[in-house]
């Protein structure tokens, strides 16, 4: 199978997944009790008023017809406008998604080297003291919900020591990078959880590689320590490590929703949460589908990197 | 207030807040104790104010769906922002004639038959593009934008006035027909939400010409807005501010985060904190917790559905009202920072029926009434949700109170935003938690209860509806008050609402900040007269 065919198949698979998931999200918004009429017309609106608003929003049409309509427009690049406040969904995405990607990017930049270092150290010493320490810490940290981690960091670094701002206020007309101090606590919170999850995954693959015959051979030939880790273990564990990190990105997306609301960080996760609460279907649909697309892209990149990093690679599998 | 969804809350508030009939005695108290007066004479006290500086205030906000178009912007912040930016027909002011302080208007004349309102414009009001305000601008704002808005804040006005048929009479007069005779229509038009934009304005941006106290320089939905003082503001000549050089309104959704912004010096004023957040701030010497005062309180209530047995029986309803331990709710849920209610909304407004006796906590009598009605040991589910701070906690206590009188009560707590989302299902609940925003009593009745509205939970009493309409058409205050009280007495005796407690909006600010309570629209603060310490 050639490289192009492999990529084509993967992309087609991703597209099918995207369509199925967008259907699922649409169905989920239809199944949720209530609709956006309350958010638009107010809970005390009369029955006639509610009917008028429902018709104005197109909510009186069958779900399938609404989905087909949405999908047709989305394919043509029009994600529509939100029911509440009438902002174009694309505008909201353009304003918020980069902030979330920045948060995720910084988190990965911090978590990836840490997780690789810790995962390798633990994996190479599988079963020994250092491994037990790292594994236990990672297990505990991976089990701490983001909002608890955030509360702890706030209590220590913001309230007690007064080192960092409690809220990630972005200067008006600027972006998060204009107030970099506001990024520290959100990134630390996400990195703590992300590092822990990735460390555990990398540790497993490093431990596998460490007991493999070729590493055993290298050991017998007197290769030890850092040289063994970097020259012999890392190249073989790198592929799985990249895949571990891409999986961690999924964990980060979920965590970002929580972290963005705790620190009031202007990201897309918070908007999704708000749109769901208001039953703002076009907004939910646009944001969720875009997030799914981003996730699929990251997973695909992860697979491609993993394959490129595999020293024993042949044709794509 | 991390768990409540604020658009929904505001909509509830907005629906009812669509009217403000009378500026209550509470506003007088608020203004008097606030160190300023709300009358045009406020300029006299401005000598003590430090002019200048930029005030930073934080609100819950509405995320990326916030909009500069306040005719389509359902969050409190959309309205607060618009009021800093645009001129207004007027504001409530209990110290002024008819209870209103005019903005771009000189006066409102009412015809003998109470059906025609003539708005007379102040001459020489200028927009930021240098043009002068005329009747065409007011007409566009009322007849096109407000009349076409789907927002509940404009609903009460459209119930009483035929906005779409307003007419200009020369450059400085607008004639507005009322739908039925109404004596207190000035208070509906001058409640601070009728803002004036330039004729032809359809979309809004920082470039839009305006005539308010501040000029908008920056706006990012979900983050905030920045303003500078409008030196050309018509109010400046009347001693009505603004005193600040600049104003920043920020959106911070989380209650703890808003408090953090205040204590860390990132904000000077924060709106609507959760009770527990406000309690932790009380220990901080650099800030003041400033709860809103009567009548700007929110009533927490439980609605009994008269379409569902046994709530069709008046004795059962009475028993459910007697069962609640109001004092316990005030002290446990709100740390004492709340007031006992008497099963009627709108406490503190002039048209509220003060004279009725306070309903007692009488579990014995409740038990006896339930027995007499054959409802002892009845099962009931109380449905609630975290729509405003304290709502779930109050419902939890009420379920315990009901168990103490032998009712097999249980609590169903819905996730945030869910309670009112399916409104048809909500109105079918046998026993539902609710809350009432600060709006005068008769208006609250007309919006939510009259005519057997679904929100009335089976209360359908045409003769009480008529009594309320009649009260509002009286130009004699004593007659209006007598009729209004009669209507509320029936509601108190036979109604289906248990309203045990009123809670304030818990705002907080840096020490020495003044003038915010001099520019209130309902429960929402304004900044045209604010001054930094």
Automatic annotation (TrEMBL), chain A:
UniProt-annotated location(s): Cell membrane
Topology class, membrane: Multi-pass membrane protein
TM region(s), chain numbering: 101-124, 136-159, 179-198, 241-263, 283-309
Family annotation (InterPro entries): BPD_transp_1_N (IPR045621), MetI-like (IPR000515), MetI-like_sf (IPR035906)
Endpoints of the signal sequence: 1-27
Biological process according to GO: transmembrane transport
Record carries keyword Cell membrane: yes
Chain ranges of the ABC transmembrane type-1 domain: 97-302
GO cellular component term of the entry, any: plasma membrane
Keywords for the protein's UniProt record, in alphabetical order: Cell membrane, Membrane, Signal, Transmembrane, Transmembrane helix, Transport
UniProt entry tagged with the keyword Transmembrane: yes
Family (UniProt): Belongs to the binding-protein-dependent transport system permease family.
Protein name as it appears in the record: ABC transporter permease
Organism: Sphaerisporangium album
Automatic annotation (TrEMBL), chain B:
Keywords attached to this entry: Signal
Database matches in PROSITE patterns: PROKAR_LIPOPROTEIN (PS51257), TAT (PS51318)
Pfam family for this entry, one: SBP_bac_5
Signal peptide residues on this chain, from the entry's feature table: 1-32
Domain Solute-binding protein family: 103-418
GO molecular function annotations of the record: peptide transmembrane transporter activity
Top-level taxonomic group: Bacteria
Cellular component GO terms, alphabetical: ATP-binding cassette (ABC) transporter complex; periplasmic space
GO biological process: peptide transport
InterPro entries: Peptide/Ni-bd (IPR030678), SBP_5 (IPR039424), SBP_5_dom (IPR000914), TAT_signal (IPR006311)
Gene3D superfamilies membership: Dipeptide-binding Protein, Domain 3 (3.10.105.10), Periplasmic binding protein-like II (3.40.190.10)
Name of the protein described by the UniProt record: ABC transporter substrate-binding protein
Natural source organism: Sphaerisporangium album
């Amino acid at each position: 199978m050639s490289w192009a065919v492999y990529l084509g198949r993967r992309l087609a698979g991703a597209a099918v997944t995207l369509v199925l998931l967008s259907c699922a999200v649409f169905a989920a918004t239809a199944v949720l009790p209530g609709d956006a009429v309350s958010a638009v017309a107010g809970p005390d609106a009369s029955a006639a008023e509610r009917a008028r608003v429902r018709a104005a929003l197109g909510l009186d049409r069958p779900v399938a017809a609404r989905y087909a309509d949405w999908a047709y427009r989305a394919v043509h690049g029009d994600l529509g406008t939100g029911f509440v406040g009438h902002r174009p969904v694309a505008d909201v995405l353009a304003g918020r998604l980069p902030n979330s990607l920045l948060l995720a990017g910084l988190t990965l930049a911090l978590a990836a080297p840490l997780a690789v270092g810790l995962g390798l150290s633990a994996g190479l010493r599988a079963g020994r003291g250092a491994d037990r320490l790292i594994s236990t810490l990672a297990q505990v940290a991976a089990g701490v919900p983001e909002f608890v981690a955030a509360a702890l960091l706030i209590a220590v670094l913001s309230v007690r020591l007064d080192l960092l701002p409690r809220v990630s206020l972005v200067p008006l007309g600027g972006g998060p990078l204009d107030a970099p101090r506001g990024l520290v606590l959100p990134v630390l919170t996400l990195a703590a959880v992300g590092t822990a999850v990735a460390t555990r995954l990398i540790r497993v693959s490093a431990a596998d590689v460490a007991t493999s015959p070729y590493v055993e051979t290298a050991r017998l030939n007197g290769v030890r320590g850092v040289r063994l880790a970097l020259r012999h273990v890392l190249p073989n564990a790198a592929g799985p490590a990249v895949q571990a990190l891409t999986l961690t990105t999924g964990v980060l997306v979920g965590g970002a929703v929580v972290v963005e609301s705790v620190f009031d960080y202007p990201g897309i996760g918070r908007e999704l949460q708000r749109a769901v609460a208001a039953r703002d279907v076009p907004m939910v649909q646009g944001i969720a589908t875009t997030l799914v697309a981003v996730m699929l892209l990251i997973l695909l990149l992860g697979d491609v990197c993993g394959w490129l990093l595999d020293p024993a690679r042949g044709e794509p599998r | 207030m991390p768990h409540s969804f604020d658009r929904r809350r505001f909509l509830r508030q907005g629906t009812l807040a669509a009217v403000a009939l009378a500026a209550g005695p509470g506003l007088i108290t608020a203004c008097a104790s606030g160190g300023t007066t709300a009358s045009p004479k406020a300029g006299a006290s401005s000598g003590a104010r430090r002019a200048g500086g930029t005030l930073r205030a934080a609100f819950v906000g509405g995320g990326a769906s916030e909009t500069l178009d306040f005719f389509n912007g359902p969050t409190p912040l959309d309205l607060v922002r618009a009021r800093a930016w645009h001129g207004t027909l007027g504001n409530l002011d209990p110290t002024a004639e008819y209870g209103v302080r005019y903005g771009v208007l000189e006066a409102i004349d009412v015809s003998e038959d109470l059906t025609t309102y003539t708005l007379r414009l102040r001459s020489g009001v200028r927009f930021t593009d240098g043009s002068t305000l005329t009747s065409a601008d007011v007409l566009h704002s009322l007849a096109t934008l407000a009349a076409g808005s789907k927002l509940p804040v404009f609903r009460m006005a459209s119930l009483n006035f035929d906005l779409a048929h307003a007419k200009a009479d020369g450059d400085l007069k607008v004639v507005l027909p009322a739908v039925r005779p109404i004596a207190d229509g000035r208070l509906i038009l001058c409640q601070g939400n009728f803002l004036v934009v330039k004729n032809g304005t359809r979309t809004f941006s920082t470039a839009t010409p305006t005539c308010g106290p501040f000029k908008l320089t920056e706006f990012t939905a979900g983050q905030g807005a920045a303003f500078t003082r409008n030196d050309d503001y018509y109010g400046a000549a009347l001693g009505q501010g603004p005193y600040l050089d600049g104003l920043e309104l920020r959106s911070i959704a989380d209650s703890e985060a808003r408090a953090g912004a205040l204590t860390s010096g990132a904000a000077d004023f924060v709106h609507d904190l959760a009770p527990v957040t406000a309690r932790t701030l009380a220990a901080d010497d650099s800030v003041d917790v400033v709860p809103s005062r009567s009548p700007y309180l929110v009533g927490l209530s439980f609605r009994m559905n008269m379409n569902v047995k046994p709530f069709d029986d008046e004795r059962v309803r009475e028993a459910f009202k007697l069962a609640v331990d109001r004092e316990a709710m005030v002290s446990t849920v709100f740390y004492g920072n709340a007031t006992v209610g008497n099963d009627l909304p709108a406490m503190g407004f002039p048209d509220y029926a003060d004279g009725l006796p306070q309903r007692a906590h009488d579990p014995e009598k409740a038990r006896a009434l339930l027995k007499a009605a054959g409802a002892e040991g009845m099962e009931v589910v109380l449905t609630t949700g975290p729509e405003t701070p304290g709502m779930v906690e109050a419902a939890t206590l009420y379920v315990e109170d009901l168990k103490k009188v032998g009712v097999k009560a249980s609590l169903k707590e819905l996730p945030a935003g869910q309670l009112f989302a399916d409104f048809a299902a909500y109105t079918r609940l046998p026993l539902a938690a609710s809350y009432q925003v600060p709006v005068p009593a008769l208006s609250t009745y007309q919006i939510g209860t009259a005519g057997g509205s679904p929100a009335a939970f089976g209360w359908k009493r045409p003769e009480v509806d008529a009594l309320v309409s009649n009260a509002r058409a009286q130009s004699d205050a004593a007659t209006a008050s007598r009729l209004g009280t009669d209507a509320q007495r029936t509601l108190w005796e036979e109604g289906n609402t248990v309203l045990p407690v009123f809670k304030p909006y818990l705002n907080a600010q840096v020490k020495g900040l003044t003038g915010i309570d001099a520019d209130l629209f309902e429960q929402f603060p304004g900044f045209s007269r604010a001054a930094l310490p």
